[in-house]
Each structure stands twice: as C-alpha cells, then as structure tokens.
Amino acid sequence: MSSKFLLLSFITAATFCGVANAQSDQGTNNAPVVHSKKEVRAQNRALEKKVRHALTASKQLNSSDIRIIAKNGKVALEGDVPDPTQIQLAGDVATKVSGVSSVQNNLTVREEGN
C-alpha cells in the first residue's frame, strides 16, 4: 500500500511541477523575441520576395526596374517607372502585402529615350 501511495505522490508532484513550469514559461512570453541576424535577413528577403510577387502580379504595373529593400517590415521602393501613375500604383500594391508595416516610395519617372 505504501508503494502505491508513494507512486501516486510522485505522479502528483511531477504533474504539479509541470503545470507550474508551463505557467511560468507563459509569463515570459511578453518579452521581445530576439532573432539572429541570419533569421532577420531571411525574413527581410522573404518580405522582398512577397512584395516582388505582388508587383509583378499587377497587370497595370511595369515593375522591371523597381528595386525592393525590406527591413523589419519597412519596405523601400527604388528605381524608375514609365509614367507617374505607376509610382502611386506600386506604393499601393506594396502597402497591401501582408507583413509590410510601411512603404517608402522613392520611385521616379523614367526619362524619355532611356
């Protein structure tokens, strides 16, 4: 009888410690998540790729001379487009991409003959 009591006590204690530990781990989830430089670069490249895909999917936009730079959700568009309406269109398309927090639109109108 005492071995059953001892086993039951051990199981109860182990369960309690596991619950207490899980609760204390949940309390630390409010701390900011620190990513390695490699992870941050991969996230930035993935966001650049998503924005590039959205720009090329837009039928009215010539995105062949647009460069995309992403850093922590902030996206910069650089390069040139054939006409002024495409500057606004590119910014609008980039803003709608999931993960983009802001867009800095540095696009210019391409000069004639270039």
Topology of helices and strands:
Blueprint: H1 2-27, H2 37-57, E1 66-71, E2 74-81, H3 84-95, E3 102-109
- Proportion of residues in helical segments: 40-55%
In terms of DSSP E residues, the strand content is 15-25%
> Alpha-carbon distance between the termini?
92 Å
From the spread of the alpha carbons, the general shape counts as elongated
| Low confidence ranges | 19-25
Describe the structure.
The chain has 114 residues and is α+β, with helices and mostly antiparallel strands. It has a domain at 37-109: Histidine-containing Protein, Chain: A (2-Layer Sandwich). Helices cover 52% and strands 19% of the residues. A 3-stranded mixed beta sheet has the order 1-2-3. It is elongated and about 55 Å long. The chain starts with a helix and ends in a 5-residue tail after the last strand.
